[in-house]
Amino acid sequence: MNEKTQTEFAAHVPERIKELREILEISALDMAKDTNIPFDTYTKYENGDLDIPISVLYTIANRLGTDVTVLLTGEEARMDSAAVCRKGKGVQIERYPGYEFSSLAYNFKHRIMEPLLVSLDSSKPQAQPVSHSGQEFNFVTEGQVMVTVGKGEHVLSPGDSIYFDARIPHAQSAVNGRAQFLTIILEKNS
Predict the structure, then answer these.
(1) How many CA atoms are closer than 13 Å to the CA of 61, on its beta-carbon side?
(2) In whole angstroms, how far apart are CA 178 and each of 31, 61, 118, 142?
(3) Is the whole model's pTM more than 0.85, yes or no?
(4) What is d(CA 146, CA 166) in angstroms, rounded to the nearest whole number?
(5) How confident is the model at residue 1, as a pLDDT?
């Protein structure tokens, strides 16, 4: 799958969610209740009016009884022992201008963590803090990244990392230009 096709697939995530929900005969109101998402927010996600955080995609996929890969690509994950992702071949998603990520394990079935390569651009508006279940690890590979966790701010350079409780509101932004970091999100607390 080429990069353009991957981006086009990811652009259809809200449509896939709605279609699968309707196939399963789940009302939007029940879906919002079952996923613990305010109804207004859920409808904005499904209509494509609001960016869907990766943690929310996991919650929605779980309720729909499917893998996040189905929502991201429209295809089932195929690998169950190992999945290789070649450089530049992950599922590319632009969450909003200046914040793009590439899903690096999209083709592995039943994964309990989500490794993403995130690219940031300081010339674009900074993301609002998010929180989600589980834990998160960030490892900077390029540039400098400001990681805000609660009230703490941490400037990380290449080779630096941070591990935190993802239930605490957090955000990442590039410092002076472009930056890139690997994030691993563990959604299920063991």
Answers:
(1) 24
(2) 37, 31, 11, 8
(3) no
(4) 16
(5) 40
